[in-house]
Amino acid sequence: MRTLTAAGGAPLAYRAGVSLYNQLGLTTQVPAEMTVTTPRPRRTPPRRVGFVVRPAPERASDVPLLQWLEVLRDMRRIPDTSSDEVLARVQREITRLSPAARRRLTELAAAQGPPRARAVLGALLERLTDCKGAATLRATLNPLTTYRLGLSAGALPNRVSWNIQ
């Protein structure tokens, strides 16, 4: 894994997909192929390694934050778990972050996250009374778009104000 993710000491890529979800304890599924991010498409991937194109992390401290953005991106597609369980785990992790790390997560989500991930993160930040971070993410969203993520009202009470279904 190290040869695929580091070039000259700088982070180049990070783990994603089912192997990441297994590593984080979100699923018990063990994939036959590990998925890794890469800043540009690869023509000949190594055996049992798949690639998804994502921007390279600017610094090593961004990797865990980007991995939680991957979780929010694929919330509905994580095997062996529900969206509500994933959301509860993400919320626990966000509450553990320092204010600086939370701001950085908001910056990364605004720059790289898909709209559905930005909407869920904004709703979580709003519930955690981080109004500035929530407002930043709300400004990046189209107010007419709805996000069907299968979240219950009990898991995310403010989901309606973020157009999450």
Note down, in words, how this protein is organized.
- The chain starts with a helix and ends in a 26-residue tail after the last helix.
- Helix content is about 45%, strand content about 10%.
- α3 (about 60-75) crosses α5 (about 100-110), α3 (about 60-75) crosses α6 (about 115-125) and α6 runs antiparallel to α7.
- With about 160 residues, the protein is mainly α.
- The model has no long low-confidence stretch (mean pLDDT about 90).
- The protein has one domain.
- The strands form two sheets. A three-stranded mixed sheet has the order 3-4-5. A two-stranded antiparallel sheet has the order 1-2.
- The chain is globular and about 45 Å long.
The helix-and-strand class reads mainly alpha
Q: Identify low-pLDDT runs.
A: none
Radius of gyration: 16 Å
Describe the global form. Answer: globular
Strand order of the largest sheet: 3-4-5
N-to-C SSE series? HEEEHEEHHHHH
Largest beta-sheet characterization:
3 strands, mixed
Task: Summarize the SSE layout with pairings.
Blueprint (H helix, E strand, L loop, with lengths): L1 H4 E2 L2 E2 L3 E2 H7 L10 E5 L10 E5 L8 H12 L9 H14 L2 H14 L2 H13 L3 H9 L26
Parallel strand pairs: 4-5
Antiparallel strand pairs: 1-2, 3-4
Helix pairs in contact: 3-5, 3-6, 5-7, 6-7
